[in-house]
Specification:
Elements (H helix, E strand, L loop, with lengths): L2 H37 L10 E7 L4 H9 L10 E7 L2 H8 L10 E3 L4 H8 L10 E2 L5 E6 H6 L10 H4 L10 E2 L5 H14 L5 H12 L3 E2 L2 H5 L13 E5 H10 L5 E4 L11 E4 L4 H14 L5 H6 L32 H15 L2 E8 L15 H15 L5 E12 L2 E11 H4 L4 H6 L11 H14 L6 E8 L12 H10 L9 E6 L5 H9 L4 E5 L5 H13 L4
Parallel strand pairs: 1-2, 1-3, 6-7, 11-12, 11-14, 14-15, 15-16
Antiparallel strand pairs: 3-10, 4-10, 5-8, 5-9, 12-13
Helix pairs in contact: 3-4, 7-8, 14-20, 17-18
Keywords: Membrane, Transmembrane, Transmembrane helix
Organism: Kibdelosporangium philippinense
InterPro entries: VWF_A, vWFA_dom_sf
Length: 557
């Protein structure tokens, strides 16, 4: 091989090495450029962010919104955006327990785990038993500052006994309805703990609850409006509320300052559970990411702005400079279990007379009979007694009305006239007009057994903690359905299967007239822990109607 060939070969090797170096540099440059773009959030994008639907309680909604607004949905590490709806926890619990919930959220942030349990109790199987607490707020007794100073505050640390015990006799104490507000549930537990230390715990617990019940309100906001010199009527001087709500009041109403009195031992706090409901995998991933964001320490500023604590009870941000609240860490107490929840709510229902009544009125042909000496039909006196009873009920009582005969609605012996609604909602919507418009059928028979079973099944499925639940049936006859449907033995057996001692649901009969089978009504009512009230004289229906209502609504079956 000549020198010329060697030199030519060396030149080709040199060129090849230069090409390799240039290609390597180019590849490295491209790789660096690609990595650099991935590292630069401004350049990284998510083409189609997942939508995460969240329903939040009003207290926590500003915090949820603050965290959500700080997200970048186009960041490949995020790739989701939050759409939030604000709604009361009690309302959401009812919506999720409906047979076919409309547009259920992927995430529900209630103000208390109480509502998760209430929703599940009502049939919302998709709601989890618990959720990650993303904030907390102790439940306190808000005491007007002048009243606190009269009790040696701030030199003395006050407790609930100073407010609801003998030392609080001069106070006009309010109460939050525990059937619609978790603050009320915590207050019931606090009262029971305070009275448990007395010589007669049961009697003293009832005495305190009777003192609180006349001033019961649907929520703390209603009670705030009744405090101070601007209140209409005697001002409320103390009432249970959350620490968050008290701080908000003191920031907005400088002339009506309230002192937070903490229960000892502590009662359940508002724990704001982050509950994830069943959804698609991409949405579930987004829900998990957002939960991580809500639990980060950077949320502290948003919590502090809204008067909330960290989930572990530490005060977020800079503690308040005054001494109307406690600024040390107050470790939260868990929400009550189902058994304890039912117990305290049933006690309150017996005191406050907050009820859920499924009323069922006989409209069979015999109800057209005229009562001798009165000039009125049995139907007329029944409706008059019913209207009088409604006017005596607590406005928070929930009432629904069915009528029954035989084959009244197709093959069914019964028909709904008014769905179960609070009286303060149904009366403005013409409930009394619908009641007055009820007519007896010309020749209808009495389908008592099928109707009693259907009404009881419906009431059992919709049983509500915090209320006295009962089925009230008014009739002037006995079952007369030509052998159709269930017989007495089957009815009693089915009723027996549905009994739950922790969730009482009595059937109360109002039987009137000579055609009533007293033994029949007694057997059915006793199978449910109820009672039958009977009179052969239809003109006495008013008397037995009111006697039955007062006995059962007052919690004395």
């Amino acid at each position: 091989m000549g020198r010329h060939d060697i030199e030519q070969q060396d030149r080709r090797k040199l060129i090849l090495m230069l090409v390799i170096v240039l290609v390597g540099a180019l590849v490295a440059g491209v790789a660096w450029f690609t990595v650099d773009r991935l590292r630069d959030p401004a350049q990284a994008t998510c083409a189609n962010p997942v939508v995460l639907n969240v329903v939040a309680a009003p207290d926590i909604a500003p915090v949820v919104d603050k965290v959500a607004s700080g997200l970048n949905p186009n960041d490949v590490n995020t790739c989701y955006r939050v759409e939030m709806v604000v709604n009361d926890s009690a309302v959401v619990a009812d919506q999720l327990a409906a047979p076919r919930p409309v547009n259920p959220p992927a995430v529900w942030v209630a103000d208390s785990s109480v509502w998760l349990r209430r929703a599940k109790e009502k049939g919302a199987a998709q709601v989890p038993d618990s959720g990650s607490s993303i904030a907390s707020s102790p439940v306190v007794m808000a005491l007007a500052e002048p009243a606190a100073k009269a009790r040696s505050w701030p030199e003395k640390q006050l407790n609930w006994a100073d407010v609801i015990g003998v030392g609080g006799q001069d106070l006009n104490v309010g109460m939050v309805d525990p059937s619609v507000d978790a603050v009320g549930v915590s207050a019931l537990i606090a009262v029971r703990q305070v009275t448990a230390l007395s010589s007669d715990p049961a009697a003293n617990n009832v005495a305190v609850l009777r003192k609180l019940s006349p001033n019961a309100a649907s929520g703390s906001s209603e009670l705030f409006a009744k405090t101070g010199t601007t209140a209409s009527g005697p001002p409320i001087t103390a009432f249970p509320t959350s620490e968050r709500a008290l701080l908000d009041n003191n920031a907005k109403r400088k002339d009506e300052q309230l002192v937070a009195v903490y229960p000892e031992p502590a009662s359940p706090s508002l724990d704001y559970p982050y509950a994830v409901l069943p959804s698609s995998e991409p949405v579930a991933v987004a829900a998990a990411k957002f939960r991580t964001a809500m639990l980060s320490q950077s949320v502290g500023e948003a919590l502090a702005t809204n008067g909330l604590r960290f989930p572990d009870g530490r005060v977020a941000g800079t503690p308040p400079t005054d001494n109307r609240t406690i600024v040390r860490q107050l470790r939260p107490v868990a929400a009550p279990g189902t058994a304890q929840l039912d117990q305290v709510l049933n006690t309150w229902a017996g005191i406050s007379k907050a009820s859920r009544i499924q009323a069922v009125l006989d409209v069979s042909g015999s109800m057209n009979g005229v009562i001798p000496g009165s000039g009125k039909t049995r139907m007329q006196v029944t409706l008059e007694a019913s209207e009088g009873g409604i006017r005596l009920m607590n406005p928070r009582t929930k009432l629904g009305i069915w009528v029954f005969s035989a084959e009244l609605d197709g093959d069914k012996d019964y028909k709904e006239v008014l769905p179960v609604l609070p009286l303060n909602e149904s009366l403005p919507q013409g409930a009394l007009e619908k009641l007055r418009a009820i007519k007896a059928t010309p020749t209808g028979r009495t389908g008592l057994y099928d109707t009693a079973l259907a009404a009881y099944t419906s009431a059992r499925q919709n049983w509500e903690p915090g209320r006295l639940n009962l089925v009230l049936i008014l009739t002037d006859g006995k079952n007369d359905d030509d052998g159709r449907g269930v017989n007495r033995e089957s009815l009693l057996a089915e009723l027996g299967k549905m009994q739950d001692p922790n969730r009482p649901l009595p059937i109360v009969f109002i039987g009137f007239g000579p055609d009533v089978d007293v033994n029949e009504l007694n057997a059915i009512s006793k199978a449910t822990g109820g009672q039958a009230f009977n009179t052969a004289d239809p003109t006495k229906i008013n008397e037995i109607f009111f006697a039955a209502l007062s006995r059962f609504i007052a919690g004395r079956p």
